[in-house]
Each structure stands twice: as C-alpha cells, then as structure tokens.
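Predict the 3D structure for this chain.
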Amino acid sequence: MFLLFENATLALLGTTAVVAITHALLGIDHSLPFIALGRSRQWSLGYTIVVTTLCGIGHVASSVAIGGVGSLLGANLDSLMWVESTRGVVAAILLIGFGLAYTAWAVRNTFRDETQSHVHTHIDGTEYENLSLYHGDHLRLQSPGASVTPWALFIVFLFGPCEPLIPLMIVPAIAGSWMLLVAVVVTFGVLTVLVMGLTVTIGYRLLDVVPRHRFRRMADAVTGLLVAASGVGVLFLGL
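Done. Predicted structure below.
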C-alpha cells in the first residue's frame, strides 16, 4: 500500500514536471514578449530575467490562488477550468492590446522625434552611442514607456492562467494530501519560471547576431507587433 502511494506520488510529480516544462516551452507568450521588449528597451540580460521571473511567479501564483479558493469552496474541476479559460482569453486580449498600444506609441515617436546621436569614448578606448530624443525644443532623457512596460507585463501575466496546473492540484486536494499539493505547486512553479528564464536568455543572446543599428528606428514598433502576435497566437492558436 505504501509502495503504491509512493509510486502514485512520484508519477504525479513527474507528470507535473513534464507538463510545466512543456507549458513554458510551447507558450510563446512566456518568452517572446520578454525577449523583444528586453532588446528594444535596451534592458540588460539580468534585468530582463528579473522581469521575466516576477511575471512568471505572478502567472503561477494567480492560478494557485484560484485553484486553492475553488477547492476550499468545493468547486468542481469544470468550473475552475472555465474560470481559467476565461482568464486566458482576457490575458490574450490584454497582450494584443498592449502590443498594439506599444506599436502606436513607437510609430508616433519615430515620426515626431528627432534623434541626435553622440558617440562617447571610455578611458579604455571603447565607444558607445548615446541616443537623446528631442520633441520640439525639449530634451527627453528617458521615454515614459521605460517604467510602465514591466508593470504592464506583470499585470497581463497576473491575468494569464496556468490551465494545466489546476487539474494537477485537484488530485492531492481531493485526497487531502496537503504536503503533496504543496509539492505539486512548487514543482510546477519553479520549473515554469526556470524554463521561462532559460528560453528568454537563449533568445536574448541569439539577437546579439542581429545588426541593431539597421533596425534601431523601428525596433520598438516591431517589438509591439511581436508582442501582439504572441497574444494572437495564444487566443486563436492555443499556443
């Protein structure tokens, strides 16, 4: 009996691990927005990973909260999955809206701002280009999207459901095995965030081969379209 229980526990945790990894790898919204925005906003890789991690934690935590409350209230699996499915549609629409709004903002800035480039030389002889955007007679040192973007992504991911997690939580909840429930949640959450971070890191590094000076002017507009496209993929293709 104990061996059977142990085997069932290992099978559930193994299934949770496989589902978490697959969920994070196949969901283009789990990586593409962070790669595109990290590059276009010129975030460091470290900062991009921090934003990705926080969004991933919020993504998992919101589903855990809904699953936990639903279990306590005695909601059945169909009801919880309907809630998660509805949240998925809302999250996809928010992602599309965010991407299109970002694109509109980028296009507006591209045509309204004059870009002045300065080359600075460090003591070690390396050079970097500093871009200052001018609108009329006023110097804009930092675009307003720099601080809004991470929060917007976080809010979108709070609405984004982890639909595969709910059925995995129901099994130990019905059995009253709260330690196993915690193990399932931790396994799913940790692996989801780790795979998101790894995928974003790989994508971020792969873009090093792209000559950024060719796409600098339209980088933000392209980024917005990519973010919107990931939302479309989630909404219509179930990616």
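Residues 77 and 167 are 7 Å apart (CA to CA).
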